[in-house]
Here is the input.
Amino acid sequence: MIRKLLSRILPFNTKRTIYNMGYNLVQWCYLPFLFLLNKKSSDNDTVTLLRFDAVGDFIIWLGTAKEVRAMYPDNKICLVCANQVVELASQTGYFDVIVPVKINIFAVSLMFDTYKKLAKIRSKIVFQFIYKRDIGHEFVAACIPAGHKITIANGSEYPKMPALLKRLTNKIYDLIAPVPERFAHEIQMSAAVLRLAGHNFTTKSYSLPPLSVDKRAIPDVRYFVVAPGAKLSDRCWSTDNFARIIEKLGSRLNITCCICGTEDESVLAKEILMSCDKRVRIKNLTGQTTLLQLVEIIRAAEFIICNDTGQVHIAVAVSTPSLCIYGPWETGVFLPYHADDLSETKQPLLCCKDMPCAFCDSNFTKECLDCIKTCGKRLCINNVTVRDVQKKVDQLIAENGIV
Here is the structure.
C-alpha cells in the first residue's frame, strides 16, 4: 500500500529512499523484542528448519531438507515456511510438522499472532537457512525456544539490513557459518549451515519425484511451456519477443504452446495471445493450475522457455529441458547451478547478455534506471534479442533430440 502510493507521486530514487528510511525505522523498533523473545529450550526431539522462500528457491533447498532428514532420522522435523509451498512440502515426506507463517513487519498484530504460533515449537535445534534476512526473518528465529540456533552470515546489505543491526541480531544465534564466497550458490550456502552442525555430504541439485495430482490438469497434446512472468516485472522479457519465439516454434515443430503462470501473470499471457499469429496453437493456463499441477505440467512438457523465475528451478528438479532468459544481477546465486554432483538433473541453458554492470544485485546504474523508466525492463533483459533466444532454442532442440 505504502509503496504503491509513493510510486504515484514521487520519482523512482526518491520514493525508494523514503520507503527504505521508514522500513529501517520499523526494523530498529523490533530489535528489543528479539532479545526478550529469544529463549533456550531443553527439548531433545524436534529439529526446526526455517525457510520462507518463493517456490523456486524452496525447490533448490529441498535437497538440503533431504539431508536433514537423513541427519536426524529419529527426530521430529518441523518446517516453518511460506503458505505457498506447504502443499509441495507435505508431499516430499521430509517433514513431520509444517507450520506456515506470514511475515509483514508493518502488520504488528500479524507478527504477534506469528509469535504465539511459533512459541509453542520447542526445539533441540533451529536451522535458519535464509541468506538475505531482514528483521522479520530474525523475529521468527527468536520466537522459537531452542537449545541451539544455527544460521549463515546475513548477506543482506543496506537498506534491507544495516550493518549495525546485522551485528546485533547475530546475537540470537549460537553458530553462524561464513558465506563460502560472494555470490555463492544457494545449494552451497545451505550446505555450509549443515556442515557447521557436523554433517558433511555431497551437494546435489534436487530431483523431485512425481507428485500426486489430478492428471486431467496435464494437457493431452504434445506441448512446450512458456512462462513469461517473474517476481519482478522489470526482470521479464518482452511479451512481443516471446510471441515471436512461439510463432517460430509452432510452425517448425507443429507443437502446442502452454503459457503458465500465476493469475497475476494472466495479463502477460493475453498480451502474447494478442501479438501471436492466430494460427499458432496456444493454451493459456495462467491462474488455472495449482503449484503441484504446474510441476507435473512442466515435467510432461517437451521443454520450457522462461524468465528468471521459479519455473526454471521446477524444470531442473523434474529434468525437463529448459531455457532461461535472465540478467547477470546475481549470477551464481541461483543460476547457473553449482554443486558437487549435478548428474541427477538436467541443467538449464541460459540466455544472458554480458554487461559491465554484472553482479549489480539490483543496485542499478543510471543507464539501467533510464531503461526501466522508458520500457519497464532492466537494461540487461532489454538487450536480449529474439535472435539471441532463437539461437539458444535451436541449441536446446538439437541437444535434446526434439523434432
The two ends are 48 Å apart (CA to CA). The domain at 2-196 is CATH 3.40.50.2000 (Rossmann fold).
